[in-house]
Amino acid sequence: MPVERSHPPSDASPEIGLHDPLADSFSGSREGRLLFWLAVAFSAFQLATALGLLVLPSQIVRAVHVGFLTLLVFPLIGVARHASLPVKLLGWILGLIGAAIAAYQWIFYDDLIIRAGYPTVLDLVVGTALIAVVLLAALRVMGPALPIIAGAFLAYCFFGQYLPAPLVHRGYDFDQVIDHMAFGTEGIYGIPVYVSATYIFLFILFGSFLERAGMIRLFTDISLGLVGHARGGPAKVAVISSGLMGTISGSGVANVVTTGQFTIPLMKRFGYRSAFAGGVEATASMGGQIMPPVMGAVAFIMAETLDISYAEVVKAAVIPALLYFASAFWMVHLEAGRLGLFGLPKEECPSALNAVRRSWYLILPLVALVYLLFSGYTPLFAGSVGLALTVMLILGTAIATGLPAPAIRIVFWVGLGLVAAAFLEFGVYVLVGALTVLVVWNLWSRGGRETLWLSVDSLAEGAKTALTVGIACATVGLVIGTMTLTGLATTFGQFIVSVGGTSLFLSLALTMVTCLILGMGIPTIPNYIITSSLAGPALLELGVPLIVSHMFVFYFGILADLTPPVALAAFAAAPIARESGMKIGLSAVKIALAGFVIPFMAVYAPALMLQDGGPLAATIGYVPAVAYVVLKVCLAIALWGAAAIGYLRRPLALWERLLAAVAAATLVLALPITDEIGFALSVAFVGQHLWRAKRAEAVA
Q: Which of 47, 107, 521, 531 registers the highest number of CB atoms within 10 A of its CB?
């Protein structure tokens, strides 16, 4: 049975409530239990459609997905915020309206197809109600930023004909706008909701089960064993553990409040300032969204939007992701050197090898997931199998623990492994059958029922975690619908192209600023969808490969969550670090500063994202171009880090920091002889600094 969640400390509550309004929402009351089982039903529906046990048209799946989202969001927030009875009642009414709209889409599915483009009065009422409910849900979950943006785009549909050129359009009737937004697959039920109802939900559940199986502890122990004893070890643990968490969790804010509970106090205990400790965790956690295989679910939206394979998206993301974490690692290393901070005593650090030996089996579902994704299977199939294998491990562990002899346990695991492998030959029904047997077995085994409740709780928690992303995807559908109806993306794109005719760098800077501004209040996924729709085609026309342009806006959408004044990840770390979210955000920008150069360098040298094209690859060949640009980025990151922290072998003088910054900047610019100047300045900076450091050591 669902248990009452403990509330955060009183000084932390306001910050957490602002950014995680669904925290502590499954109470032990009747209302809490009802919501718990509705969340379980939501997960069961999504699993049934993902595994092919329930075959429905895509439009119905999307409509039911949004119906469940609205049915759960309003009452859950009412419970979480301890709202008054009238407010809770209003929440249930709005939730039931959302569910009724989904039922309408399902019951009248055939009729709606037949009269597409010619909605009835009832259709218009239902469509208007859907738009209103979705906007209200977004307002309750994420605050005013995204609803205001979506509302402004919607208003443009109705009143854009009164605007001056180039924003003017021909004008659209009310029924045409409502039909476009609320029915079909161009508006609310567009690609973002399709991805939310399939890939995103499934991978959120996958991460939820892995976390409850003990993956967080495994990642933390590995990180502590590898770098806990090194200089600045606690901060390096935060970077590595958050990077590993990013492989299974797509939420940067969720990473902050999970791994941050351990890493931030540890960093503070070893001498890091509160703001810097929170900034390290926020920077590393947000980087989890660019770390394959999950990538905050944007990988799946990007693949669907660009009509390319998931493997192509991962190929483009892998080097920038590694460089991002390398830059964060480098920054904390320099800060530790500047402050003279050391790591944990080696005897206090767990053995990374022992941690892997103890819990190596937890990695198997992740390995299977990556294997299937790169073997050509769809993300939906791969995610379903990965999730099923994770649940099999959890249930199988509970059974194996109660078996009387080691030999019997070995036979059990070998047999379960053979059954799991049989899905490649006989399909997912083998896994469904095996899971059914394991569930029944756990009902009668010692400790099995507790494990089953843990699994059911994971279903509910996974559904709750998916609510914010799902509502964001539904809301951003209004933005995409506006662009497909009015051609607004073309207008914005023409503006960027006109700027790019003068300077590609100015176009990139304009796109970056757009991403950062939009990201100040809306999650990464809607930020990416909006900015890629606006700027992606324009950057393509300027010669930027399409996937590189999409990765460019995605990257800065992530950095927006570190950028004050909003900085969602920084404010999520604030109650843990007991420091101002604004100060943490400023520290996070400083730590991530080196990472800002990576997207720009990828545009000028697509080889950084393992893409063909670009003058460099044409001149020296693809493989040498990849090696050269990675070397150049690493050097630029090292120089930016030294300039930002003010330390290398010893504290840097002001003129040294300026020299390092200029050297890094010339390496980023793709102009004639700037690389040569950058390398020369780099050699001059490093040479003189080492000489000065050696002299200082000799004098000392």
A: 531
Report the distance separating Cα 141 and Cα 73, nearest Å.
8
Contact by Cβ (8 Å): 610, 292: no
pLDDT level of residue 108 (50, 70, 90 thresholds)? very high
Q: Does position 214 have pLDDT exceeding 70, yes or no? A: yes
Alpha-carbon gap, residue 520 to 513, rounded angstroms: 11
- DSSP characters for 252-263? HHHHHHHHHHHH
Tens of pLDDT, residue by residue over 129-162, are 999 999 999 888 877 878 888 898 899 999 988 8
Distances (CA, A) of 125 to 59, 131, 147, 174, 178: 19, 10, 20, 11, 9
The tokens of 597 are what? Answer: 């150069």
User: Residue 647: helix, strand or coil by DSSP?
Assistant: strand
Per-residue pLDDT band at 128 (split at 50, 70, 90): very high
Residue 336 has what pLDDT?
A: 86
Burial of 450 (0-12, 13-18, 19+ CB in 10 A): exposed
Taking alpha carbons only, the member of 327, 325, 295, 326 closest to residue 313 is 295
CA 143 to chain centroid, in Å, comes to 19
Give 647's strand partners.
Answer: 651
Percentage of residues in the chain having pLDDT higher than 70: 90
The string of DSSP codes covering 261-314 is HHHHHHHHHTT--HHHHHHHHHHHHHHGGGSTTTGGGHHHHHHHHHT--HHHHH
If we measure between CA atoms, which residue out of 251, 256, 217, 252 comes closest to residue 238? 256
**Whole-angstrom distance, CA of residue 109 vs CA of residue 466:** 26
Rounded Cα gap, residues 632 and 436, in angstroms: 54
Q: How confident is the model at residue 105 (pLDDT cuts 50, 70, 90)?
A: very high
Q: Place 519 in a pLDDT band, splitting at 50, 70 and 90.
A: low
* DSSP for 110-179, written as a single string: HHHHHTTTS--HHHHHHHHHHHHHHHHHHHHHH-SHHHHHHHHHHHHHHHGGGSPTTT------HHHHHH
Looking at this protein, which amino acid is placed at residue 71? L
Confidence of residue 566 (pLDDT cuts 50, 70, 90): low
> DSSP class of residue 561?
T
565 preceded by a cis bond (ω within 30 of 0): yes
Q: What is the C-alpha to C-alpha distance for residues 555 and 539, in angstroms, rounded to an integer?
A: 15
Amino acid (1-letter code) at residue 74: F
C-alpha closest to that of 176 among 108, 112, 127? 127
Among residues 144, 143, 170, which one has the least CA distance to residue 156?
170
pTM attached to this predicted model? 0.75
Q: What is the mean pLDDT of residues 357-378?
A: 79
- Helix/strand/coil for 42: helix
Is residue 151 within 8 A of residue 132, CB to CB? The reply is no
